[in-house]
Design goal:
Blueprint: E1 9-19, E2 25-29, E3 33-36, E4 55-67, E5 80-88, H1 91-133, H2 147-153
Amino acid sequence: MVNTGNLRLRGTAVLELSALFGLWNRTVALPEVPEILPGQSYRMQAVVDGVPPLLWLGSTVRLDPAAVGQDVVPVEPAAVTATTGTVAVPWLWLLVLAAVAAGGVLAARRNRRRREEFDRAVDAAREEGRRESAGSPSDAGPDEPGAAERAAESGAVATAVDPSEPSDPARPAD
């Protein structure tokens, strides 16, 4: 505060703080401004606790000056207002947002890898099915040439039955 006039001044000051969209407001009465002689200045600081970080914080200081002593003033000095703003970063919120975003990216990558593995497995199964249905030797019936050899290779037991011999149900099978 600077006294640019020719009167001794003192005053009262009020600090108003506000967040975006009126989410948070606070008014703080500042200490009374002592007498300031013409041409002098006075610097004041205020520490306000409990201010939430809501991205943008606006501040307005209003000073109501008054003449000191027995100075006769035909018109009272006008109130002076100064406004400014600052960024109030919500670091915890930003860390939580970054963690959620990183988790989403990792989940998307994992899902994409799983989907690719599943697609490869399905493609391999389809290809195997195509090969089997295209007439591979494993599809041959029991009367086709080579069926007994394939059955022996796979570990199956085959018994030959002669249709000309009479079957005896009382006789145990070999």
